[in-house]
Fold this protein.
Amino acid sequence: MTVAPVQIPPNSPHLQEVLDLIRRSFAYMDGRIDPPSSMHHLTLDALAAQAEAGEVWAIGAPVVASVVLTPRADVLYLGKLAVSEDQRGQGLARHLIEHAVKRARALGLNAVELQTRVELVENHATFARLGFTHSGTTAHAGYQRPTSVTMRREVC
């Protein structure tokens, strides 16, 4: 399988594959994180809007890995990174993250940033191995405790 990510435009029928992959990939979080994942509110129209405002990238036909990239003031926000369960361990997430770093450079941004839930310590470790460092915490509306960990990878 080729691992070259392909940008998915807002009107692409492949957006449904990306949405289905995100839903499958994030399902394991149900019952582990509080509040529940925003994935439950993600619709095809919302994903198309994200593709319009930022970029949606995917690997495979059918889609087996995907990521949503959104330019912000000085960082490229990496969200909804998903890899099909039967494709994990093949470096697809690493490949999409390296692609995000290249996109950040091309856009003149200083870093790639992401958020992962406090409870998902295995994700913290995975992102640390991929060059991200802990840069802060945030709390969802209505929560007094941190609910997300912000991680950042500088673009050299």
